[in-house]
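Hey L., structure's done. Input below.
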Amino acid sequence: MNWLLVIVGAAVGAPLRYLTDRAVQARHDTVFPWGTFAVNVAGSLVLGAVTSAAVAGAASSEVQLLLGTGFCGALTTYSTFSYETLRLVEDGARFYALVNVAASVVAATGAALIGFTFSSALGQ
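Output:
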């Protein structure tokens, strides 16, 4: 049954990643991968909240599998982040590649912390 929860979460997260990436990127006329950046930060926010709820005992293992593993796993994308960063380097946009790495790490970590903190505050 656990695998079904992961599949259901991924079935929602993967198309949402694609649609969000396309919608965000269409609004920005730049080589910077804003769509991937947006889904990775949003997924980190959700994963931080789910993790906090799990630590507090408010999220069951089923919720963790559905949202944390399935949904967030399919919504976020380290492989696309890596590919787009390397593409920026190959295209001579090294500054954008460096900004992509630094901003993605800082923003995603910050979003996870915000999600964790917000979820913790709701649980008290």
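The mean pLDDT is 96. The chain has one domain: 2-123.

-- N.
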